[in-house]
Structure formats: structure tokens, C-alpha cells
Amino acid sequence: CSRTSTKVTHQKLSLSSAKPAPMQILTLAAAILCLGIGFSVLLANSRRPSNRAFAAFSLILAAWLVCVFGTMVAGGARERGEYADLEFWLRANAVVASFAPWGIWLLKNAIVFPREKGKRAFLNSVPVLGISVFLAGLCFSSSFVFPGTDPILRRGTAFFLHSSIGVVLYLITAIQIGRQ
Predict the structure, then answer these.
(1) What span, in angstroms and rounded, lies between the C-alpha atoms of 90 and 64?
(2) How far apart, in whole angstroms, are the C-alpha atoms of residue 141 and residue 164?
(3) H or E stretch at 8
(4) Largest CA distance in the chain
(5) Residue 122: CB partners within 8 Å, gap ≥ 6?
(6) Which of 62, 155, 179, 180 could hold 34 in an S-S bridge, CB 3.0 to 4.6 Å?
(7) CA distance 102 to 173
(8) Mind listing the pLDDT tens digit of every residue in the chain (180 residues)?
(9) Torsion over CA of 34, 35, 37 and 43, rounded to 10 degrees?
(10) Within 13 A of 65's CA, how many CA atoms are on the CB side?
(11) What is the b/e burial string over 132-164, where b = at least 16 CB atoms within 10 angstroms of the residue's CB?
(12) Rounded distance, CA 108 to CA 37, Å?
């Protein structure tokens, strides 16, 4: 029984090692735009719960887009045979994405209950925040993504559980928005 081993060369990953692709530039520009719009809405009236919720959701989206950018860069470097921590960026992407349904729920509550203080909008979203924290925790499991026998990362049980619960959470949120 013989085993073949593949030699992996570890090189330092740098953004200057390759010209950024147009999609990478657009992704980073979209992240900056999300931050700018969220900050502008917050500056317009920081006391309004819907503005605070929108700014929070914008921050989540911007962080997610930064993770998408990091995944693109790491994936491109990996294709060129350079060392890149693609697994880190995939996990970070999923952690941040875990909070997107909560951001939508918070924004929905802030709009539905406009005369209430922001406290009610936040308190009504705490269960979804709890689920988001649980989903984020799944991303740190060894069964989320892991290297296979080849250089390709494999998805495990935690990944599919994360994705399934995330889809259900988005569906529940969409149904709630439709009802209100």
C-alpha cells in the first residue's frame, strides 16, 4: 500500500502577486459603497430606529463583501499554486453571512414598529440573533469545511446544517415581511 504525497509550497500571499480581477474590484467597491450609504443614513438621523437598523445591516453586508473579496483573492492565489488561507476566508464569509437574516429582521422590526423605541425592534429580533450566533458557531466546527485528499476543500455536516438553517431563516423572514 503506497501513499503518494503532494508537496505544497508555502509562499506569502500578497495582493501585489497578481493583478486584481474586475469582479474583485467591483466587490471591494460595493463594500465601500455599503459602508458609505449606511454611514450616511445613520448621520441623517441617528435616533431613528430604522436608520440604526439600516446602518447595522449595511455594516453586515460590507463585512460580508470584504469576506467575499478575501475568498476571491485566496482562491485565485490557490489556483496559481500560491499559499492562501482559503479555508479561513470561507469560514469568515459564513460567520458574517450568519448575521444577515438578523439584520433583515432588525430592519423589518424597526420599520413595522416606527413609533416604538428601537428597544422593541431589537428585543423582537433577539431570537433571530440567537440563531445567528448558533450558525456562526457552526462555522468553527471541524466538520464545516476541511481539506480533502486533494487540494480541494470539502464541505461537511456543519456546512450543510448551517446552509439549511440559513435558508429556513430567510424563508421565515420573507413570510413575516409578507404578513406585515
Answers:
(1) 11
(2) 16
(3) none
(4) 72
(5) 106, 109
(6) 62
(7) 9
(8) 444 444 444 444 444 456 778 899 999 999 999 999 999 999 999 988 899 999 999 999 999 999 999 998 888 877 776 656 888 999 999 999 999 999 999 999 888 877 666 677 788 889 999 999 999 999 999 999 988 777 678 899 999 999 999 999 999 989 988 887
(9) 160
(10) 19
(11) beebbebbebeebbeeeeeeebeebebbebbee
(12) 18
Q: DSSP states of 123-146 as a string?
A: HHHHHHHHHHHHHHHHTTSTTTEE
Smallest CA-to-CA distance from 95 within 124, 56, 67 is with 67
Asked if residue 42 lies in contact with residue 21, where contact means CB atoms within 8 angstroms, the answer is no
Residue 53 CA to residue 118 CA, distance in Å, equals 9
pTM, two decimals, is 0.82
Q: What is the DSSP letter of 148?
A: -
> Around Cβ 46, how many Cβ atoms within 10 Å?
10
Give the Cα separation of 33 and 17 in Å (integer): 26
* Helices 86-97/49-79 angle, 10° precision: 160
